[in-house]
Amino acid sequence: MTLDLIQIIFLFCLIAIKGKSNFRRIMTKILNVRKLGKSYTSGSKELPVLQEITFDIEKGSTFSIVGPSGSGKTTLLGLCAGLDRADTGSIELCGTDLGALSEDERALLRSREVGFVFQDFQLLPTLTALENVVVPLELQGAKNASKVGVELMEKVGLGSRLHHYPSQLSGGEQQRVAVARAFSNKPTILFADEPTGNLDAKTGDKIIKLLFDLNVDTGTTLVIVTHDMELAEMTQHQMRLKGGKIVQDQNPSIS
Ligand SMILES: Nc1ncnc2c1ncn2[C@@H]1O[C@H](COP(=O)(O)OP(=O)(O)OP(=O)(O)O)[C@@H](O)[C@H]1O
Ligand SMILES: [Mg+2]
Fold first, then answer.
1. Per-residue confidence at 249, pLDDT binned at 50, 70, 90?
2. Does the pTM of the predicted model rise above 0.90?
3. 7-37: string of b/e by CB count within 10 Å (b at 16+)?
4. Domains contained in the chain, CATH given
5. From atom 18 of ligand 1, which residue's Cα is the shortest distance away?
6. What confidence score (pLDDT) does residue 27 get?
7. Whose CA is nearest to atom 26 of ligand 1?
8. Ligand with the closest atom to the CA of 66
């Protein structure tokens, strides 16, 4: 009888320890992508853009996605950030299954956890540069939105362009406003689609430093799409897409 009791307690402890280690394993992954597929319809034809994409991203890590033009990088980033829905497969972002969320719920998750630098910036043309950074913060109810906005604009080197409209800014300046906006909610994970694509080397280096400082200082996970191999090699993990499939997946810090 006593032996049975000891055996039961031992079994219980074993299950608890195993459960805890599984829990820890799940919690360290901020993004779990499984067998993801996405197609677009063009006329009557279906165009597969992503097929059987499976990968994980560790919380607090830096990760780059590279590959030729049209290989599906922007599409993949948009799906992972919950901007669009996949056709097949699953994505778990910050412990939440994106497939189970409504559009409003995905928007709420994005506003709390996600920063996104769009390849084409997507600044609102009727708002000034500063307003583009501040308005999303105000919508979230942030108290000192203006102060935070000005500080971020100064950080990206645009303290003297606060009241310019996007049409009055150069491509590189618009890109920097987009970076400032993506930082504004202190995201847990930041997706940046070619964040230095329109910048000269010096400004590009400054933005890269800002991105990596954010990773080091606040533990923000960094997911960068880039054609710049030097930038890709600065990240802990690199993944290469070709024709909508993963063709190379490596972690230089481990191998
Ligand atoms: N809304 C859409 N409707 C139809 N086809 C689309 C749509 N968006 C993207 N595509 C197609 O999907 C493919 C992948 O596009 P995506 O923008 O993801 O490529 P990318 O790897 O980001 O390319 P780049 O390096 O040029 O930015 C392309 O062939 C593109 O033409
Ligand atoms: Mg793209």
1. confident
2. no
3. eeeeeeeeeeeeeeeeeeeeeebbbbbeebb
4. 28-250 (3.40.50.300)
5. 72
6. 53
7. 69
8. 1
